[in-house]
Amino acid sequence: MKAVVFHGIGDIRLDKVHDPKLKDPTDAIVRLTANAICGTDLHMIRGTFPGMEPGTILGHESARTSATSTSATASSSPPPSPAARARNCRAGYSSQCDEANPNGKDAGTAFFGGPKPSGPFQGLQAEYARVPFAHADLVELPPEVSDDQAILISDIFPSAYFGANIANIQPGETVAVFGCGPVGQFAIASAHLLGAGRILAIDTVASRLAMARAQGAEVIDFNEEDPVEATRRLTNKIGVDRAIDAVGVDAVAPHQGPAAKVAKLEAKQHEQEVQEVAPKTNPDGVNWIPGDAPSQVLSWAVQGLAKAGTLSIIGVYPETARFFPIGIAMNKNLTLRMGNCPHRKYLPKLVGMVRSGLIDPLKILTQREPLTDVIAAYKAFDTRQPGWIKVELQPAS
Ligand SMILES: NC(=O)c1ccc[n+]([C@@H]2O[C@H](COP(=O)([O-])OP(=O)(O)OC[C@H]3O[C@@H](n4cnc5c(N)ncnc54)[C@H](O)[C@@H]3O)[C@@H](O)[C@H]2O)c1
Fold first, then answer.
1. Last residue of a domain, one of 317, 338, 359
2. Rounded distance from Cα 69 to ligand 1 centre (Å)
3. Are residues 76 and 34 in the same domain?
């Protein structure tokens, strides 16, 4: 089959690889009808989410049809699911499942197509995939939900909804969403669903800011305005009630406008942060360049929050990241919540929302590309080309 394979930092290829095989009784092999590129994949290729093994198939967002299962998975009494046995799953944290992670209890979130220390499974940017714990993991889609909608519900919508949920947004509150990539767009949509009164959206890419504005957010271009000053000005110097970091480790510093002056003073510290999180990088022209200010969003969010506000961090940081403005956060009585989304907890609810027409996730999907054009698609998404917000890959075309 064809699959997108990680060969090294800055080096991904569309390869012919062996079809996946069943290993455990609770596995299924599924044919993937649609998959997508995520900002998390970019961190891995840029080297800012290190530990990737060459040969790993990338990708963790997909819609699937026609599972060919072993007789065990098809049997009416499958073995107890991890959800039934494991403490973290019972608490709703399926993304911290102790049983499912091949690296054991000390590892964090097991990723499809993730770095070795995370406890990865082969990824989903392929024609077929092995899905472990299929009886607990796969979610049946009603006919009203299309494959295009399903890929958006497979990761980024639940991740953003999780981010808005743990931010503890109360009706009428003001929420700042940092990053207007696909996850940030769904964070805006989710904040609306949870009753936010105002949403301030921060980024610098014009087409992404335009989409945020079309969703009803007030937008701040960090190369034109200082986001901390702007949030204070727009909230009568109080600050925002809740902030969501939908950027992560590849945050960039402003290079013009009033915020650039402050960023210049912090350039040395940012440089050191990049060294720590990405000791090895491999840029190729304009592609695969790590962000130059990993802590930028954390710093802006903590400064822009009202006292006793909440910061929800869903942007991904590697375990090697050690920078956080703890002093300001502590002295403002902030609440910090964060993590990898426990998708299984949110999927049925979001499938229901899409099925009923409460929200149509397709408004965020901007590109549909054949899997055969995947490298060009990755490069355009990596450089945030105008209009390239969410990219679907179609294995069959
Ligand atoms: N926690 C989870 O479960 C989960 C799930 C999916 C994705 N993610 C993470 O969410 C983040 C966003 O994903 P995406 O697909 O939208 O990525 P993306 O790279 O497409 O979007 C990131 C956006 O942040 C903007 N940005 C960069 N520096 C900024 C700054 N200083 N201030 C404000 N905006 C800035 C960029 O211009 C870009 O538009 C990534 O870190 C990804 O790994 C987390």
1. 338
2. 35
3. yes
CA 38 to ligand 1: nearest atom: 15
Q: Is the CB of 354 inside a 6 Å radius of any atom of ligand 1?
A: no
Q: Tell whether 195 and 319 lie within a shared domain.
A: yes
Domain identity same for 166 and 30: no
| Residue pLDDT, tens place only, 303-316 | 999 999 999 999 99
pLDDT of res. 273: 98
Mean pLDDT score, 195-202: 98
Parent domain of 275: 157-338
CB 150 within 8 A of CB 34: yes
- In testing the pocket of ligand 1, which one of 183, 317, 392 has its CB within 8 Å of the most ligand atoms? 183
| Residues 196, 365: Cα–Cα separation, whole Å | 23
Taking residues 162-186, what's their average pLDDT? 98
Asked whether residue 220 falls in the same domain as residue 297, the answer is: yes
183 plus 325 within the same structural domain = yes
Q: Are residues 170 and 319 in the same domain?
A: yes
- Any ligand 1 atom below 6 A from CB of 182: yes
Neighbouring CB atoms inside 10 A of 36's CB total: 29
245 close to ligand 1 (CB < 6 Angstrom): no
Cβ neighbours for 251, distance < 8 A, ≥ 6 positions apart? 291, 293, 294, 295, 296, 297, 315
Examine the fold and report which residue of 300, 321, 338 is the final residue of a domain before the chain moves on. Answer: 338
Q: How far is CA 32 from the centre of its chain?
A: 20
- Regarding the beta carbon of 263 and ligand 1, being less than 6 Å apart is answered no
Do 163 and 146 belong together in one domain?
Answer: no
Amino acid letter at 154?
A: S
Take residue 198 and report the two structure tokens written for it. 């105002």
What are the start-end ranges of the E strands in 186-250? 198-203, 218-221, 240-245
CATH number of the domain within which 381 lies: 3.90.180.10
The strands making up 11-16's β-sheet, listed across from edge to edge, are: 11-16, 2-8, 56-57
CA of 74 to the centre of ligand 1 (A): 38
Q: Which atom of ligand 1 is nearest to the CA of 178?
A: 33
Task: Please tell me whether the overall predicted TM-score, pTM, comes out greater than 0.90 for this model.
Answer: yes
